Amino acid sequence: MKHHAITLLIISAALMAIVGCSAFAPEPAYNPSPMDGATGVLAGIDLAWTGPEGATFTVYFGTSSSFGAPVAEGLTTDFYDPAPLDDLTAGQTYFWRVDSIVGGTLLEGEVWSFTLAP
Fold first, then answer.
1. Cα–Cα distance for residue pair 73/98, rounded to 1 Å
2. pTM to 2 decimal places
3. Domain containing residue 58: CATH number
4. By the 8 A CB rule, do 105 and 64 touch?
C-alpha cells in the first residue's frame, strides 16, 4: 500500500510539471492591517498585508470600493506608507486592495476597509 502512495505522488508531480501547475499555487494578499472592517483606526497608519513570496504589489486606496488609478505600483515590500494620504478625514471609511503579481500572473486581492477614529 505504501508503494502505491509513493507511485501516485510521483505521477502527480510529473503531471503537474507537464501541465505547468503547482499544488502550492500562490494566493492573493491576505492578513490586512488594519484588519478588514476595523473602526477607530488612528490616522498616520501604514497599510500592511501578507503576500506571496517573490511578488510585486499594486495598492489601491479610496473612499469607495470602485477604485481608480493605484496609489502605488511595483512594491516589493508587504506594506505601504500612505504619507501622501495623511490628510484623511476623521470618521471616514476607506477601502483598499492589494493586487499581487507573481511570475507575470496577476492575483487580484480582496477589497478591505477600515474607518478612521472620529
1. 10
2. 0.77
3. 2.60.40.10
4. no
